[in-house]
Amino acid sequence: MNVADLAHPAEEVAPRLLGAVLTHEAPGGTVSITITETEAYSGTADPASHAYRGRTPRNAVMFGPAGHLYVYRSHGLHWCANVVTGTDGIASAVLVRAGRVTEGEDLARKRRGEKVENSRLARGPGNFCQALGITGEHNDADLLAGTSVMLSEGEPVPAALIRVGPRVGVSKAHDWQHRFYLAGDPTVSAYRLSPRANPSAGA
Q1: What's 148's domain CATH number?
Q2: Domain that residue 168 falls in
Q3: pLDDT digits (tens, 9 = 90+) for 170-187
Q4: Are 44 and 52 in contact (CB under 8 A)?
Q5: Burial (CB count <10 Å: 0-12, 13-18, 19+), residue 114
Q6: Is residue 192 part of a domain?
Q7: CA gyration radius, the chain
């Protein structure tokens, strides 16, 4: 995978990241996770995006270059990882929502809990980061430079397996069809509508 693969709008890159692999080589060991669920966030054009109101110190990584990792804390509790996409200077990123641990399962389980089922090790964006060992210190990591956090191509995913739906838990633009996931995969998180969303309102 290279910059050219990611230098497109988030909603185009998000389905292409299904089947790709995120790897973190930490002092305690290596964990690799195959991505099974993503969500696209289109920057200043997207009311649900962190970059909707423009660049800030928090969201600066979203403005490029493509191929970097944007990491933020959700509700002060969980780290969430996003792959920056698009053109340098224009905010665009894909949230990695879930995946299947394909290397380092023992280490992932140690981070997540000994009784956690295999399918739940990296289900949900916070769990994904916890299993992979990603924290705020990895914000702005270059995923394509061969550092400790890497994004690589995995096995091709048949188009027939890709499903599209509304994003999970967002209150604005909640009905945008920007969530992509693998049909029938047990690692994919369950859909839930934010209690703050207005189902009768349009995008």
Answers
A1: 3.10.300.10
A2: 3-182
A3: 888 888 999 999 999 999
A4: yes
A5: exposed
A6: no
A7: 16
pTM confidence score: 0.93
Give a yes or no: residue 199 inside a domain.
no
pLDDT value of position 200: 46
How many structural domains does the chain have?
1
Percentage of the chain lying above the pLDDT 70 cut: 96
Q: Describe the chain by its helix, strand, coil percentages, rounded to 5.
A: 20, 30, 50
**Residue 160: inside a domain, yes or no?**
yes
- 118 or 201, higher pLDDT: 118
Which ranges in 48-132 belong to alpha helices (H)? Answer: 105-112, 125-132
User: 2-31 burial, b for 16+ CB within 10 Å, e for fewer?
Assistant: eeebbbbbbbebbbbbbbbbbbbeeeeeeb
Considering only CA atoms, which of 185, 75, 81, 70 is closest in space to residue 131?
81
Render pLDDT for 87-107 as a digit per residue (tens, 0 to 9): 999 999 999 999 999 999 999
Cβ 182 vs Cβ 188: under 8 Å: yes
